[in-house]
Amino acid sequence: MKFVISSSELLRGILSVSKAIPTKSALPILENFLFNLKGDRLEITASDTELTLKTELEVENTSEEGQIAVPASHITNLLKELPDQPLTIETKNDTSFECIWSSGTSTLPYFPAEDYPEIMTTDETAVNIQFPAQSLVEGIAGTIYATADDEIRPAMNGILFDFEPDSTTLVASDSHKLICYTTNDVKSAEKASFILHKRPAAVLRSIIGKNVETVDITFDSKNVIFNFDSTMVVCRLVVGKYPKYRDVIPQNNSNVLKIDRTLLLNTVRRVSVCANKASNHIKFDLKSGSLEISAQDLGFSIAAYEKMDCQYEGDDLTIGFKSTFMIDILNNMNCNEIVIKFADSRRAALIVPSEEEAESEKICGILMPIMIA
Asked: How many CA atoms lie within 13 A of 370 on its CB side?
């Protein structure tokens, strides 16, 4: 194998897939990048068997096509220290290769490509869907914080992609809060769904650039493949059945609070400083035209409350929430004004952007209340 490539381009390529390199693995070969040279294209692969990342780079002066497994830490550390310049990579024997630049050479080991595990893929039952890239990034960002860490119910540790003929919804829940992101830009000929674990979801979100227009998604019952530009992301899906999330979305909450999102977020943050550190409980007291938020920790004899004007229509209501969950939801919505709809002090509150907001139909949050002493 021999080819010439810009050192900065090669560094960019390996960094884009390096998130799939495991820190520790039962298979030492996975601590390597797989280089596959075909003509004037170099395919770089990294995998931990659950998540695989691939990218392609254009190279020059190629000869002796082939595959080698290159130690990830060695090649990355070397490239980070090199200024941008043409770099020649050439295998010398069955165990080592050279990186040659204008003023020096480095000899590094490589391992047989045959030892690298076979990359997972989809079968003939796979479904293919086109997803606008920025909607995908927005959907993951708007829901991923609500995923759980649940060993008993692994389905809750991921984001549900729920495709329907008229829309697509991304859903995440930890049983205390539930977030739905809906877009009408993605439609499926028939109902289909998969659960993507939050780790590959976070990686996917981080590597989709702002210049990417569309992500091609192909999935079957076991794996999903995301293709965009010259990058491929292959993920093993979470096995399990996602709860019927639509059944828990409140429909007829008659008590309605409309308030500035940032004002409410900052108030909850201030008051929650005096909440019990174990429970993080805060209390909402709602009356026509006003909202009072309070918290106390009897163990340390501390308390706080703050009263603010708001638009509230409904019965006088006292309801408790866990402040950290409320902050999560408010902090991850991008709207200026929010609407919170309540049924009573025992049932879930529905949190949505106000009707005037452009994304009012895109995102909604559901937060379970807590009992007030």
From this structure: 18
Q: Which helix H or strand E contains 357, and what residues bound it? A: none
The span from the CA of 200 to the CA of 276, in Å, is 35
Contacts of 193 by beta carbon, 8 Å cutoff, 6+ apart: 160, 161, 162, 163, 242
Q: Is 84 helix (H, G, I), strand (E, B) or coil?
A: coil
H or E stretch covering 180: strand 177-183
* C-alpha pair distances (Å), 205 with each of 135, 167, 226, 297: 11, 21, 11, 39
d(CA 133, CA 185): 11
Q: Is 104 exposed, middle or buried (0-12, 13-18, 19+ CB in 10 A)?
A: exposed
Distance between CA atoms of 367 and 357, rounded to whole angstroms?
A: 21
In 3D, which of 318, 275, 316 has the Cα closest to residue 299? 275
Three-state SS for 325?
Answer: helix
pLDDT along the chain (373 residues), means of 10: 96 95 89 95 95 96 92 96 96 93 95 92 93 95 96 95 95 96 91 96 95 96 95 95 92 92 97 94 96 94 95 96 96 93 94 76 91 77
- Helix (H) or strand (E) holding 242, with range, is none
DSSP lists the bridge partners of residue 338 as: 259, 353
CA 221 to chain centroid, in Å, comes to 20
Is the entire prediction scored with pTM above 0.85?
A: yes
Q: Which residues touch 121 (CB under 8 Å, ≥6 apart)?
A: 223, 225, 234
Instruction: Identify the three-state secondary structure at position 15.
Output: helix
Determine how many CB atoms are found less than 10 A away from the CB of residue 304.
16
User: d(Cα 20, Cα 30) in Å, to the nearest integer?
Assistant: 9
273's tokens = 């400083």
Who contacts 320 (Cβ-Cβ below 8 Å, separation ≥6)? 281, 282, 283, 284, 345, 369, 370, 371, 372
The contacts of residue 337 (CB under 8 Å, 6+ apart) are 258, 259, 260, 261, 353, 354, 356, 357
Give the integer Cα–Cα distance in Å for 188 and 60: 41
Give the SS3 label for residue 258. Answer: strand
